[in-house]
Automatic annotation (TrEMBL):
Residues that span the membrane, as ranges: 7-26, 32-51
Keyword Membrane recorded: yes
Organism: Anoxybacillus andreesenii
Taxonomic path: Bacteria, Bacillati, Bacillota, Bacilli, Bacillales
Highest taxon, organism lineage: Bacteria
Keywords tagged on the record: Membrane, Transmembrane, Transmembrane helix
Name used for this protein in its record: Hydrogenase/urease accessory protein HupE
Length: 61
């Protein structure tokens, strides 16, 4: 192992928190918060995949 990839750890934690937010919003039955947290989850996952692609192209991964 080369070490911890901090950007990926932060993105993974943000995605996990977004998934938890979706579950809480469903429990509260709030369509607005379901949409907000779902959008946040999709955005964080997309950012993670874009970051991974850029790092792979530069040879840092």
């Amino acid at each position: 192992m080369r070490g911890i990839k901090w950007p990926f750890l932060c993105l993974a934690l943000a995605a996990t928190l977004s998934m938890m937010g979706i579950g809480i919003a469903i429990g509260v039955r709030s369509p607005l918060w379901i949409a907000v947290t779902l959008f946040a989850f999709i955005s964080v996952m997309g950012l993670g995949f874009m970051t991974k692609r850029k790092m792979r192209e530069k040879g840092n991964l």
